[in-house]
Amino acid sequence: METVERWTTRSDAWTPEDDNRLAEIVLRHIREGSTQLNAFVEAANLLGRTPAACGYRWNGVVRRNFTDDIKQAKQEKKNHAALKGHFSRRRPWAPDLEDTSIDGIIRALKQHERLFYEIQDRNRELQERVNSLQQELEQLQFENRKLRDRNGFAANGGELLSEDSKTLLAIMERARKLLEAEEK
What we know:
76% of the residues lie in helices and 0% in strands. It is mainly α. The chain folds into two domains: 2-88; 91-154. It is flat, with a radius of gyration of 28 Å. This is RsfA family transcriptional regulator. It holds the Pfam family Myb_DNA-bind_6.
């Protein structure tokens, strides 16, 4: 009887809070481009478990509850890597702390100034890109409105499509639902 009680009231059982903390840590590591093994080590330290136990719990139980979050974290990692890739080509500014002479300080300040102007230029490029994309979006929205008006969509959202078009749209919707059902 003691053995049964010990197994049913384990002091090291995983709680929902433990699972959530493990998921938060793993998802953060995915977003930052780190490995899951590093995440398991960090989680082990925080949760008082072994990295192997954290890995087993993540892969065996927790992971399937966070599939959408994992996809989103991977996308964030990809977006972050693309942005980071531009700056990784440049030599990061690290002041020469060994040379405290006036010449060394001037060199460090000039290097800092160059980096500042590079970042300023990159910011300007990105701002121009944002403005360009915004204008493109507005142009596409305008063209979309014109096409909708030309093809018979009323301003209030009512459709003036022919019966054949409505039937075709219904068939396409059923086909989409069938494909989604097959994928599940």
